[in-house]
Amino acid sequence: MNAAVTIYHNPACGTSRNTLALIRNAGIEPAVILYLQTPPSRATLQTLIAAMDISVRQVLREKGTPYQELGLDDPKWTDDQLLDLIGQHPILLNRPIVVTALGTRLCRPSEAVLDILPAPQQGAFAKEDGEAVIDAGGNRVSAAGGKAD
What we know:
Layout: E1 6-9, H1 14-25, E2 31-34, H2 42-52, H3 67-70, H4 79-88, E3 97-100, E4 103-106, E5 125-126, E6 132-134
Parallel strand pairs: 1-2
Antiparallel strand pairs: 1-3, 3-4, 5-6
């Protein structure tokens, strides 16, 4: 089965790698957008944020980004200004964002992707840190969120 699934992916991010592996564990080969090399357009960003039903601020990543030096914790920044800054500094976009026919999610923790995958898990899966997420029968081990990297 190859359902239409897209992941906005950063291969340097463990949560993003785990999310991609969970998608593939469902037998799905997603469209992988390396958003640091190919940033989403402003219109695409607005569509993704609206589909996730979250604010622009909620997609901002602080760790490992120019968030602090740009002073983005200041409420003076409008959504339009924040979108412009994400366009200039794609690393500010938190990841991974996954789009399926069942919804769009910022998948932190990575197992949040399980709620929107159109196919079941096909076998056991453990995160890179060894945390078991899926058992041999393809069932969730625990609904408790793991640690985010």
